[in-house]
Amino acid sequence: MASLDVDGVLAFVTIAELQSFTRAAEALGTTQGAISVRLRRLEDRLGHRLIERTPRAVRLSAQGALFIDAAREFLAAHDRAVAGLSADRRRFALGIAAHVAGPEVPTLLARLNAHDPALTIEVRLDNSRNLLDAFDRGEIDAAIIRREDDRRDGEVLAPDHLGWFATPDFAHRAGEPLRLASLSPTCGVRDIGTRALDAAGIPWKVVFLGSGSSVVSDAVSAGLATSVFSCRLAPAGTIEIGQRFGLPSLPSSQIVLLSTLTDAKSRQALRTLAVAFREHRP
């Protein structure tokens, strides 16, 4: 029976998740050549090619697709075993923007806990602007936010497209203020929508001000108002109504990861979260 080498399995999983030898080497703090050697040794031990590499793509082979889940479980078990012998407990504070966080977030955090049981993550949900301020003040160690203004630092995780969403029977008469449901007045996504309406000369009125994204979603789902949502996170049962009512188009942005973490293990844990976040993007 072939024995598994932890470094080889880690190289395989990282290459598979990042779909790049170069990015995998960067994530693991080594060279592309070293990553290739680790993968080749693992494939030799198992007697199967796990990764298919072409000039245009890096993807799992048929055998690699069969092995990937077991490989992840192997790494998680290894990390739990090592963490159980260590008193090195670590923590970091992570901010996730309300307009970014979807129903997959608990699953992502569970994966991170399995990856590193010695790590405690303190999660803060808020709007992107507040989280960016908190990050700059050093109150949180990392943040996954919608890119604000002209700031260009951070790692891009995914594109983010906005739209006007409401129920199919939502009614709006031309000339009347557009009924909006909104988070706090400091919400950057709200500002994008209202600035677009002002520029188009369309009157608007906030008729439902919520303290959380789920409350705003409930108001829109009930047909009380429309609101700006990421197209990934629009409430179930709603549709994009911008063209139907002649509402202005909204600019796309990017979801970015900001981090000041220097500890290698914490950085690797955050990398695991970033990879998992990408997997859940449509």
Number of extended strands: 12
Strands in their spatial order, largest beta sheet: 4-3-5-12-6
Oligomer: single chain
Architecture (CATH level 2) name of the largest domain: 3-Layer(aba) Sandwich
CATH homologous superfamily of the largest domain - what is it? Periplasmic binding protein-like II
Helix content: 40-55%
Radius of gyration: 22 Å
CATH class category of the largest domain: Alpha Beta
Annotation field: number of helices: 9
Distance between the termini: 39 Å
Indicate how many domains the architecture comprises.
3
CATH topology (fold) name of the largest domain: D-Maltodextrin-Binding Protein, domain 2
What features would you describe in this structure?
The strands form four sheets. This protein has a five-stranded mixed sheet, with helices on both faces. The model has no long low-confidence stretch (mean pLDDT 84). It starts with 5 loop residues before the first helix and ends with a helix. It is an alpha/beta fold and 282 residues long. Helix 1 (6-18) packs across helix 4. It has helices at 6-18, 21-28, 32-46, 62-84, 105-115, 128-136, 188-200, 213-221, 264-279; strands spanning 51-53, 58-60, 90-97, 119-126, 142-146, 155-160, 162-166, 178-182, 204-209, 227-230, 239-240, 253-259. The protein folds into three domains: 6-85, Orthogonal Bundle (Arc Repressor Mutant, subunit A), CATH 1.10.10; 90-158 and 254-259, 3-Layer(aba) Sandwich (D-Maltodextrin-Binding Protein, domain 2); 162-251, Periplasmic binding protein-like II (D-Maltodextrin-Binding Protein, domain 2, 3-Layer(aba) Sandwich), CATH 3.40.190. The protein is built from nine helices and twelve strands.
